Description:
2 domains; Quinone Oxidoreductase, Chain A, domain 1; Rossmann fold; alpha/beta; about 25% strand; 8 helices; 7-stranded mixed sheet; 6-stranded parallel sheet
Amino acid sequence: MHAITIERPGGPEALRWSEVPDPAAADGEVLIEVAAAGVNRADALQRQGNYPPPKDAPPYPGLEVSGRIKAVGDGVHGWHAGQEVCALLGGGGYAQLVAVPAAQVLPVPKGVDLVDAAGLPEVAATVFSNVVDLARLKPGETLLVHGGGSGIGTFAIQLGKALGAEVVATARAAKRERLLELGADRVIDYRAADFSKEVQADVVLDIMGGSYLKQNVDALKVGGRLVVIGLQGGRRGELDMGQLLTKRALVAGTTLRARSSAEKAGIVRGVREEVWPLVDEGMIRPVIHQRFPMTEAAAAHRLLESNEHVGKILLTN
């Protein structure tokens, strides 16, 4: 088969369409013939040499795919060859074939195109595990989503609204109308205003890290929960512990890729039980900005790093 390999750590030009050994479905795994793969920030970090894959994952980028099951390993129940599925991966999605634990596989939701389904598993698992499972967002609360135009952001806006929350997003002014269409109650242009003076939130989903830490805590209500899932604004920030105590607030940081197979299986099970019905009903839809052929992964990465997109970027076979 062919897959996108990383010739050396560096820019998008380091990505190569290469012939590599075919994977096989081990015990408890399914082999998927890949229709499409989602492009994520983690893929760009891996390409740069800053985010190595887990030891048990393929070396190729790609944390989510959609496609058809080609084969199932021993001990797999509930899945069979020919089924249309999407899946959360530890890596290896930029390829023609990928083997994945059966517990990380999801059916393609009703009314969702097979290719577009590749844009769901990573964002659904990330947003569900942080906003619902960890931060316990409740109906009537306010959710602040940073990077509202990203794949994570566009999904979080829709999930927050489906759960009955008020949703405020930060994004460039050019993305405002699209995010309002997705259900955001307000969109704050982070380049023109201090969001912490514009909103008080019960839950903050943050992709920036250090540079936003003070403002995020300022923006929390009493009893608020700040969940940091990215470090685009740096690793370090100053935290006023007195303010944190006064607000009785929670600050948490999480990653998804490095979690154990058992943890990922639990998250995927929660997504299937609590989020997939919302997608089946049309309350949440994949937001796809652009599709590229798998051989044009470099162009897809350039678009990702430009931050000009709204929603997901996909690679197709």
